[in-house]
Amino acid sequence: xxxxxxxxxxxxxxxxxxxxxxxxxxxxVLALIRGHAELDGVVVSVGLHYTSRRLxxxxxxxxxxxxxxxxFLQHLSLVVPGVTIKRVENFSIAQKIVxxxxxxxxxxxxxxxxxCITNHERGVTTCFHLVRRDPMKFRCNHCERxxxxxxxxxRLKLR
Amino acid sequence: xxxxxxxxxxxxxxxxxxxxxxxxxxEVMSPESCRQVLAxxxxxxxxxxxxxxxxxxxxxxxxxxxxxxxxxxxxxxTSVAKGESLADTIHTVERYCDAIVIRHPREGAAxxxxxxxxxxxINAGDGANQHPTQTLLDLYTLQNLFGxxxxxxxxxxxxxxxxxxxxxxxxxxxxxxxxxxxxxxxETLKMPEYVIEATEESxxxxxxxxxxxxxxxxxxxxYMTRIQRERxxxxxxxxxxxxxxxxxxxxxxHAPSHLKIMHPLPRVNEIATDVxxxxxxxxxxxxxxxxxxxxxxxxxxxxxxx
Lengths: 159, 306
What we know:
The complex is a heterodimer of chains A (about 160) and B (about 300).
Chain A: H1 3-8, E1 15-22, H2 26-34, E2 43-52, E3 56-64, H3 70-79, E4 84-89, E5 92-98, E6 104-106, E7 127-133, E8 136-140, E9 146-148, H4 149-152
Antiparallel strand pairs in A: 1-3, 1-4, 2-3, 4-5, 6-7, 7-8, 8-9
Helix pairs in contact in A: 2-3
Chain B: H1 13-27, H2 31-37, E1 42-47, H3 53-64, E2 68-72, H4 86-93, E3 99-104, H5 109-116, E4 121-126, H6 132-146, E5 153-157, H7 164-173, E6 180-184, H8 193-197, E7 205-209, H9 212-217, E8 221-224, H10 235-241, E9 260-262, H11 283-301
Parallel strand pairs in B: 1-2, 1-3, 3-4, 5-6, 5-8, 6-7, 8-9
């Protein structure tokens, strides 16, 4: 990032930077943060439409929390697969990972198939398995249908 | 650990061959010996939607193995009609019996029943998803007709787009060695790409064609399905294709003598009744093999000794 961009979004002492978010998806990530009660009240800074060598334009989000809940990370990997997560400690990057899609999504999604029993029975937990990586496809453990990411994006189980 | 039979997708080639062997074992047993296998056991048969063949053949299979049957064949007049959840029905019925057979209009219902029950659960059809005992009986029929499943040339004919029977059979057959497929359908009812790509194994050969006559000449078995009028958005389109996949005795005149015709039944007019008395007709024996296969399945899942 160039110096003037750093001025736009403040450095954080401790927390996480979600980087390389395709431009336009930053808003989706914000909605995701709001959908997870564990992240209530944490300080979040948002940067949209930054110049990026890799993506052309990108969004960037900083979350000042000690932990990121597993369910949030799994949702995040479905909404913005390939996002980079940097853990910041004392103003410097302590760890950096590229978020891979989960092999198994346990009770974090509602099935897009209206005929699936999980949409009709009370209190059922859903389960999806990653069955293909390119293009990414998940299979509902109950109705056995395969779904692409764009079909699952608006089926996240949020609060 | 309890055993369930929910989906063909759960079964490896080895599992499939083991099931075929179970059918063979049942067939060589005397009726008296059969009646000992599940004596004193009770099968709960929960049919949330109507079915004739599947329900009757499960019930006959259980009776022939010496067991008894309880259940319902429609939800009217049951607690289900009062709004009881599937899980609650299963939790209740499992107190009365030793295994559960379930048919349900919702996809995934049998999987859910198996998750909540401590008993073996058999899927007898869950919406548009799976009907694994149909697939096993189809394989068992092939095994009996030809002495093998490997290397067969199988024509799947008719509605390849929506037929769950055809999708499951294709996935199961693709696990055997060197099975060659002919997909015969109108353009509007072609085998969907997602069904083909969902096979882990690559099929030895897939030929897509629209002519049934051509398929007859290069196949060992023709698996017919019903083309349903309601699948067509345009009734004219239905009129065009409905007779293209109609088999009668005349159409079979030049067919190879060993060619067999299968059909999951019920048929409407896709196979003329004059085919019934030909050497090619295998669909009624197929229904009979269905009961034998289910006898084997019940014995296996209930831990009966064959």
